[in-house]
Structure formats: structure tokens, C-alpha cells
Amino acid sequence: MVSWLSLQPPGIVGVVSNLSAAGQEAEGKIYRFFWALGPDLFEGLPAILGDLGPAPFQDGSSGNAAWAADGFLFHLLPQSSEPGQAVPAGSHVRLNLQTGAREVKLQEEDKFRSNLKGLKKGRRLDINTNTYTSQDLKSALAKFKEGAEVESSKEDKARQAKVKRLFRPIEELKKDFEELNVIIETDMQIMVRLINKFNSSSSSLEEKIAALFDLEYYVHQMDNAQDLLSFGGLQVVINGLNSTEPLVKEYAAFVLGAAFSSNPKVQVEAIEGGALQKLLVILATEQPLPAKKKVLFALCSLLRHFPYAQQQFLKLGGLQVLRSLVQAKGTEMLAVRVVTLLYDLVTEKQKFAEEEAELTQETSPEKLQQYRQVPLLPGLREQGWCEIIAHLLALPEHDAREKVLQTLGALLATCRDRYRQDPQLNRTLVSLQAEYQALAALELQDGEDESYFRELLGSINSLLKELR
């Protein structure tokens, strides 16, 4: 059974400004020394702190006398247990509801209780096997900084020596590799070489595609993508979208999508370089499906979290281009990606509208102004996207239906009347409700923890309820 000790002994808190390994160890020793000696310590307190002089100030938080010396700050705590009274690190404190007193349970409780028993017998107490005296304390205070600096210096030298043993300078490695006819290149040098290979008129189609494929790997890193535009490589890839070769368009868009992703600096440069117009032209013309897939990926990366690009997208007729893409035959896979993009753009705009209403400090006024200038929701309604998205519920894949249901819910405030006037949507929702009720029942019967079909059923029920 664990017993708790009343938090009564007065003590002194030592706060150490130098937190090196040696400093932490010294802090722990001095702290335990004061705490363990308890009241017996304070009979000789003037002798121990005599060299520090009278208390030069009072602690503003507690009003207790305080001394400062050699990187330490000492607080003299009162006899009674006051709020904020310090206890040894790792202690557990509780409030005794019967007595109203605070109690402490130490990690080394048995040793602490033994020390208290020894205190009652009138003998000086020890925490460790070593006995600490006032002279020991004054010596520790005087040598603390010096010892910590010496030990820190020794540790640094030892660590540097270890690193030198484990690693060799890059210049030595380069010389060794040069002797082996192996050249070490930085990421920047590799990207320059790949851009030159892609932009060279003497390179074959296969070499250009291989260069773009390798380049995509590097521009995933934000710094590398920004380096790409620093030497003009980004514009070279954007110009690759004008190629007559579908494969070049496909892999150029692949590189751009990776470079645009969550990289505002590159997104801005891409808009100024005409990337948005070129991407929309490819989507609006007859192109192979793999090329359009990569171009749509690049468009999504460019538009997300970039309201200015979204504004230009609407001005250039981007919604009409996507509508034609979704309604074309054999583009069901692209349709799901388009719906996902629209859902992301709608929820992104709604999020900033909520932040504007709450006037949170983290909200950027400039970005809020940019989002206010993006007429996305009216554009979706005018372009017939309420009906287009509703009809995509007929897709057979569960994942596609989930994304369509999410988008229908996000557009509910904008498209509610259109949804109610669409009898096909209501019939589809009722049919899906019956299908997912059966699938949800199987989930429960199999005892599956994941409730995927139950979540889809909940979305359908919510929509039906809103449209009544």
C-alpha cells in the first residue's frame, strides 16, 4: 500500500542557468541535498549562504527571500505548504480531502521516509552515500560554471574526433571518385543536366522522356522545385506542353504537377509563365487519356490553395473545359478526379469564409480578399454542375460514389433547389439507400470495426432528409 507524506518540510529551489550535462547533474545533487536536510538545514542557513550576502531581492511571485549567484537562483520557501511550493522532480502531489493538506509521494519514497525518521532523532541526513556539507555546497557553486565549460569542451572535442573517424571530407571523396571515373553531383547539377538533355535538339524522344521521368523525382522536394525555376528550367518544362508528341506533354505535366504541389513560389511563376492556359488547351482538345490524366493532375496541383490561380481558371473558362471532359465517353476515371478537385475547391473556399466570419488572428486578410474574388459557387450553379455531379452517382465504384456524395453535401446550400427538382437524383438516392442498408448489415454481422458502408449510408440518409 502506497503512503503519502505531508508536504511540510521547507526547502530551497535551485534553478540552474547552464543546462549542460554537468549542470543538470550538479543541479540534481544540490536540489536533493537541500530537500533531504529539511528543517535541520535552515538552522545553519546563514552560514551556508553567508558568502552570498543578504538576500538582494524578493521573489516577485511568492514574496520570499532570494539569492542569485554563479548561475543559480535560490528561493527560501516558508514552513507551511503554500501554492507553488517546489518539490523534487518526479514527485507526485495530491490534495488530502480529509485534512485539506497537500501531500507528496516521491519516487524514492522509502529513502525519503527513512530520512525523515532520522530527522526526528536529531541527526543530519544523507540522500546518497556521500554527505553534503555547507563547504561542499559553496565549492560546487564556485566551480559549477568552470566545470561545466571544461566538461562541455571535452565532450565537443570527443564528438568531433568521433565524427572525423566515421566520415571523410567531401573533397577527399570527390578525388577518390574521380580516380574511379565516378562524378558526384548535387541535386542542382543533376537537374541542370536533365533540363539540358530534355531541351537538346539532338536528344531522341526516349532520352527526353527519360530526362523528364528522372526530373520528376527531384522536384518533389520543395527546395529543388524552387531551384528548377531559378535557372529557367521550369519554363522549359512548361514549354514542353506545346510539344506535338503526346508523351512529352504527358511527362512534362507529370513534372509540373510534382513541382506545383504545396509550393506557392513555383505556382506563382507557373501562372506568369502561361502554364494554366496550356494545361486547359490540352484538356479541351483531342489527346490520349494518359496525357489528360497527367495534365489534370498538374491542374489540380496548381489550383489548390492558390486563389489567384482559381480566379484565372474561371476567367479562362475552366469549368466549361472540365464539364466537357466529364461528359465525354470513356472518361469516368477522369470524372471522379474532377469531382474530387471541385470538392476540394469548394471546401477550401468555405473554410476561409468561416475564418472570415470568426475574424481569427491566423487569417490572412490578403488571402481572404483573394478568395472573395473567386466566384466559384455561382459559376458551378450557372454551368449546370449541380445536375452533372448528381448524375455521377450512377457510377458503380463505391469510392466514386463516396466522392460524389461528399461533393453533393458540400454544394447543398448552393444547389438545394436544383436537387429537389431532379427526380432522377431522388430515385438514385433511394436505390443506393437500399443497397447500402444491406451492405451495412453485413458489416455488423461480420463484426468489422470499420464502418465504411455505414458511413456511406449515413451520407445518403442525410441528403434524403435535407431534400424532403
Automatic annotation (TrEMBL):
Keywords: Endoplasmic reticulum, Glycoprotein, Protein transport, Signal, Translocation, Transport. It comes from the Eukaryota. Residues 153-228 form the Nucleotide exchange factor Fes1 domain. GO terms for cellular component: endoplasmic reticulum lumen. One of its GO terms (molecular function) is adenyl-nucleotide exchange factor activity. Belongs to the SIL1 family. Interacts with HSPA5. This is Nucleotide exchange factor SIL1. It comes from Mustela putorius furo.
